[in-house]
Amino acid sequence: MNSAIQPPASAYFITEEKPAPEQRTLSIIVDNEPGVLARVIGLFSGRGYNIESLTVSETEHAKHLSRITVVTRGAPHVIEQIKSQLDRIVPVHKVVDLTLAARNSSEDGPIERELAVVKVAGRGDDRVEALRIADVFRAKVIDSTTEHFVFEITGKSSKIEKFVSIMAPLGLVEICRTGVAAMSRGKDGMLEG
């Protein structure tokens, strides 16, 4: 008779299940005044979360309002805490989780676009191939010499990532990206309702 010894049930062997981190796109309407961006970013860094993309610009000059778009990755409950804390900061007018809003309304995700400027140096066949690929991706040549091209490309971040990865072996020199600009689909705006 083979009796296998079973370890006793113990709290030491209980593992806490952590929710998988998910990517979220947040749109935040704030007063356009000094220090607001630092306060918003501080909530993410204080929780140990990286900001994958950040864009900010004044959007309503007469009202002195700016829109901050943040793409981050984290546990859903922590993202909810950050959103709740953002709502309590005085110069913040509205916080919308565009990713969650799209899920809840059964729409496709938010409309997201990014601009990248990509420099590629090369001659001969690599140069011809870079131009061909740029045409396929609808990238525009905004500067060129006999030794390099600078392309402008807009689209989803995944499109830009793919373009950059294809250009890498052809002589990729430098990349500059704006970060994601995003808004929800449909007729309603952030300051309505």
Structure description:
The protein is built from five helices and nine strands, in the order E-H-E-E-H-E-H-E-H-E-E-H-E-E. 21% of the residues are buried. Strand 2 and strand 3 (65-74) form a beta hairpin. The protein starts with 21 loop residues before the first strand and ends in a 10-residue tail after the last strand. It has 193 residues and is α+β, with helices and mostly antiparallel strands. The chain folds into two domains: 22-104, 2-Layer Sandwich (Alpha-Beta Plaits), CATH 3.30.70; 111-181, ACT-like. Chain A, domain 2 (Alpha-Beta Plaits, 2-Layer Sandwich), CATH 3.30.70. The protein is globular, with a radius of gyration of 23 Å.
How many helices? The count is: 5
Radius of gyration: 23 Å
* N to C succession of SSEs: EHEEHEHEHEEHEE
Number of strands: 9
> What is the first-to-last residue Cα distance?
73 Å
Helix fraction? 25-40%
Q: Hey, roughly how much beta strand do the residues contain?
A: 35-45%
Domain ACT: 25-100
Protein name: Acetolactate synthase small subunit
GO molecular function, one term: acetolactate synthase activity
Family: Belongs to the acetolactate synthase small subunit family.
